[in-house]
């Protein structure tokens, strides 16, 4: 995608897309504020494509997240690798950009789930917090080494969950690296907890995108007085469409959308 540098802004270093379809701003690294809102919007976008459309993006990375540096509104783009995943049908394992590739893909799994997008989102969120990629592997094998250095060596059971056909278990026993040392700065416990939920070796143990949306890490965004670092109002975070809420229990909707936002939405007022 052709782009022109825009320089540093509240959302980090961005580029303006010359493509009419992708005009916006691309996050490369986020070193400023608004990170909670950006992470929340990524999770909401994934909840929509996973649950409403039924597709897996398969290439979540900062370059595919367009952010308006003034409003901090985020758009997920580039669906060139996206696919409807059908249980029992194989998929290519060599997918997703390396730094954001889920470990089951590195282990050669072909029957993976939308949980690979969740792992990638965790990588993006960690990058927002760190200011640099968390797992900067130079090859597929080196990528796995970078993951193990942080999460520790996966157990046989975890490897089986990632790829039942993988039979090699010759890995050095490495202990997990404490998260407070990984980030080398004080983070809210809610941030650490959410990161841990993204980074589970077993795909079925990772949180879903919807579960991430209602995580306490994002509670401050529910406060109507919360503002962006530049003093502007938050981007629209709670303007859910009926199809986004279809099948979601009322108690989850109440956690998903704060009362002040429900009062502003006629649909919500009639259905709660």
UniProtKB/TrEMBL annotation:
Gene3D superfamilies: Transferase(Phosphotransferase) domain 1. It comes from the Eukaryota. One of its GO terms (biological process) is signal transduction. CDD domains: STKc_GSK3. InterPro entries: GSK-3, Kinase-like_dom_sf, Prot_kinase_dom, Ser/Thr_kinase_AS, STKc_GSK3. One of its GO terms (molecular function) is protein serine/threonine kinase activity. Transmembrane segments: none annotated. Keywords: ATP-binding, Kinase, Nucleotide-binding, Serine/threonine-protein kinase, Transferase. Its EC number is 2.7.11.1. It is an enzyme of class 2 (transferase). It catalyses: L-threonyl-[protein] + ATP = O-phospho-L-threonyl-[protein] + ADP + H(+); L-seryl-[protein] + ATP = O-phospho-L-seryl-[protein] + ADP + H(+). One of its GO terms (cellular component) is nucleus. Residues 1-218 form the Protein kinase domain. Belongs to the protein kinase superfamily. CMGC Ser/Thr protein kinase family. GSK-3 subfamily. This is non-specific serine/threonine protein kinase.
């Amino acid at each position: 995608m052709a782009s022109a540098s825009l320089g540093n802004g509240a959302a980090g270093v961005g580029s303006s897309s010359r493509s009419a379809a992708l005009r916006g701003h691309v996050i490369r690294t986020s070193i400023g504020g608004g990170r909670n809102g950006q992470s929340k919007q990524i999770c909401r976008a994934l909840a929509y494509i996973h649950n409403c459309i039924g597709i897996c993006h398969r290439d979540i990375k900062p370059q595919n997240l367009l952010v308006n540096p003034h409003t901090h509104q985020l758009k997920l783009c580039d669906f060139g690798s996206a696919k409807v995943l059908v249980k029992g049908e194989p998929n290519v394992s060599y997918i997703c950009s390396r730094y954001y590739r889920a470990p089951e893909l590195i282990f050669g799994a072909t029957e993976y789930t939308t949980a690979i997008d969740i792992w990638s989102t965790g990588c993006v969120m960690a990058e927002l917090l760190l200011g640099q990629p968390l797992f900067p592997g130079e090859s597929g094998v080196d990528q796995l080494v970078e993951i193990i250095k942080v999460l520790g060596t996966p157990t046989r059971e975890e490897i089986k969950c990632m790829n039942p056909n993988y039979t090699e278990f010759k890995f050095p026993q490495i202990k997990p690296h404490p998260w407070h040392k990984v980030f080398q700065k004080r983070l809210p416990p809610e941030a650490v907890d959410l990161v841990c939920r993204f980074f589970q070796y077993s795909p079925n143990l990772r949180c879903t995108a919807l579960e991430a949306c209602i995580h306490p890490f994002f509670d401050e965004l529910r406060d109507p007085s919360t503002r962006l670092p530049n003093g502007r109002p938050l981007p629209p975070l709670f303007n859910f469409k009926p199809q986004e809420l279809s099948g979601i229990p009322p108690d989850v909707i109440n956690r998903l959308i704060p009362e002040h936002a429900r009062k502003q939405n006629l649909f919500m007022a009639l259905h709660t």
